[in-house]
Amino acid sequence: MWKLINIVVACSILIQCAQAQIAFTGLPCTVRNPKIVGGSEAERNEMPFMVSLMRRGGHFCGGTIINERWILTAGHCICNGLQKFMKPAQIQGVVGLHSIREYLNGIGSGPDALRVDFKNIVPHPQYDCNNVKHDIALLELVQPISFTAHIQPSCVSSEKEQRSLEQEFATVSGWGWTHENQAVGDRADVLRKATVKIWNNEACERSYRAQGKSNSISDTQLCAGYENGQIDSCWADSGGPLMSKEHHLLGVVSTGIGCARPGLPGIYTRVSKYVDWMQNVINKR
């Protein structure tokens, strides 16, 4: 079942991070001044890397700006009801977005929110719509984004970075549902965020099994949440970012069982495992 997550930091993919052009060399980024279940509303312009993916005028998934030409999302976000990949023209993106209602009504966030269109969809070559593994995809823009104070790319951690993330706190954000029971919760209008704790993969797998679930957690995934549940990503948060406290992109909201259930943390695609693939795709275009 799909789940639709101030210091100087280092970038390690060919991206523009904050306002500095960064090559694949580990040079420093510019400092960035700083519904999710159980979270809170984000401040306007707090997360300038966030993207809303829309179809037929409605939000359905999140994404992250990687550079002026590419957006990162989950592989399952580009799958249609027939479990086939959608065509680029079937999806639109909105960057610089805060309130979906304001954007659709042409008020309030108009000066900041910007529609972007896609010319290519590039799922990971080992991903297919019937499997949760390698749940990651790149979307190439028709026109490059002109960055502003409110629209900026994310930093991406190096694949070679060996620092353990276990027990660290990270931030997941999106416009998804505020409760897994859609009769109880609502789809968020304003961007929401939540702080979650990253789990050891083996502990995560054991916890799923203790709840009678047979999920296998691979090294290309990571888990984040709490033993007692209550805080998590949920429906329509899929594809959105899990960010470290240093504003590194750590994960992409991927899958799980329900939303914010005890012992069943959210499962994310571990972005650092896909840096080489991302760089290869970006450099070939």
From TrEMBL:
Residues 1-20 form the signal peptide. InterPro entries: Peptidase_S1_PA (IPR009003), Peptidase_S1_PA_chymotrypsin (IPR043504), Peptidase_S1A (IPR001314), Trypsin_dom (IPR001254), TRYPSIN_HIS (IPR018114). One of its GO terms (molecular function) is serine-type endopeptidase activity. Transmembrane segments: none annotated. Residues 36-283 form the Peptidase S1 domain. It holds the Pfam family Trypsin. The keyword Hydrolase applies. GO terms for biological process: proteolysis. Keywords: Disulfide bond, Hydrolase, Membrane, Protease, Signal, Transmembrane. It comes from the Eukaryota. SUPFAM superfamilies: Trypsin-like serine proteases. This is Transmembrane protease serine 9. It comes from Drosophila albomicans (Fruit fly).
